[in-house]
Amino acid sequence: MDRAICGNFYYNGKFDYLEVIVSDGKIAEIKKNAGNVPKTRFNGAILPASTDIHVHFRTPGETEKEDFSSGSLSAIYGGTTYVMDMPNNRIPVTEYNAFGDKLGVIDSTSYADFSLYSMETGNNALLIDRRSIGLKVYLGGSTNSTGTEAITDEDVKMINDLRYTVIFHGESERCLRAHRIEEKNLRDHNNARPIECEIEAAKYVSDLKIERKIMAHVSSSDVKGNFLREVTPHHLLLNDEMPLGSIGKVNPPLRDSETQKKLLQDYVDGKFDILSSDHAPHTEDDKSDFEYAKSGIIGVETRVPLFLALVQKKVVPFEVFYRTAIETPPSLFGIKKGKIAVGYDADFMVVDFTRVKRINDNRLHSKFPVSPFNGMDAIFPSHVMMRGNLVIDNYEDISDPMGIFIPKPQNE
């Protein structure tokens, strides 16, 4: 049955009272007065819900750290109704059997809509499941992955022919080997994986004849080239001078405060394309000793709320946040989310910009919810809708897992 969601929507570059008619989970009409249909009114600002193109939910193989249920529940609490999960599982998703096995395990457990990447290892494009939303290339070693130092010409051609978007973990393996040291703190980790390793990788990616490419989690404004640039809240807001210990250990590392502040200024100035969480959870034991601690920071639940608070404080322009966290991420993959437009999914979040709260670890929904953003200001959405269904109501989840798998669109 058709119904209307009514309130102050962000539409065509401004907030305006609208009555948006939803039919079969999609936006059917946008009106000032929807007429004689059931209506649900919300107070506050109504935005399209967010997409996070870079999460590690650890299913299958490491579900003691996180699983698709806990990770996706965290996502919807943070206003994110669509996630794209990375392929560096304990058994990496490098071919169609692993892809199918992973999808089968996730089935019916996700609170958010989701897509899955496959891992490109340099010469395996023929084996990639065609439902993969994109490909991930680890140029330098990280969790459950070794560095891929070159992609064959045959794979480059196939990637372009199939119109895959390729996301690069941009650290040169050669450079990482040259700088390897014993690590006792965040400054050591920064020195062991210096910015020059990202710059070296960026040159390789820039020269690759792949048409659709993204450099993931850029940690310095000096990392530039012929690709789109993704940035994360932890590289924008944290640095290696903060007393975070192993909770702040991540690849690429947190940089010094000067580099971090320059990165944030460039984001504010609109120089980045995508804001992703790179949500990468680990257990308490994994983070207990810095030298041997696993790299990764949780963030799928706090990414949007942190930046809504920065918008409210006028640190970050609303248009920059909207473009990088809501509109651009799904559009790059041909997915009709992230926009108030006819034919798009009716995924919305309702935001009260006057309700600023501090992040509290104890209220997050990851399995090991210790966050380096603990105590920072955030604005969590009061209500979240996915395909027209209310999944967060007055800051609490009210639905069973109803996320659906979204394969790569055939025309993309």
Q: What structural class do the secondary elements suggest?
A: alpha/beta
Main pleated sheet: 8 strands, mixed
Order of helices and strands: EEEEEHEHEEEHEHHHEEHHEHHEEEEEE
Unreliable segments (pLDDT under 50, ≥5 consecutive)?
none
How much beta, percentage-wise? 15-25%
| Structural Rg | 20 Å
Which term fits the overall shape? globular
The amount of helix comes to: 10-25%
How many strand elements? 19
Number of helical stretches of at least 4 residues: 10
Alpha-carbon distance between the two ends:
31 Å
- Average predicted confidence as pLDDT: 96
Strand adjacency order, main sheet: 3-2-1-4-14-17-18-19
Please write out the topology:
Layout (H helix, E strand, L loop, with lengths): L2 E9 L2 E10 L2 E6 L7 E10 L1 E6 L12 H10 L2 E6 L10 H11 L6 E4 L1 E2 L15 E4 L14 H9 L4 E4 L3 H6 L7 H7 L2 H13 L5 E3 L12 E4 L1 H5 L19 H12 L5 E2 L27 H10 L5 H14 L16 E4 L5 E2 L18 E2 L4 E4 L2 E5 L2 E2 L15
Parallel strand pairs: 1-4, 5-6, 6-7, 8-9, 9-10, 10-11, 11-12, 12-13
Antiparallel strand pairs: 1-2, 2-3, 4-14, 14-17, 15-16, 17-18, 18-19
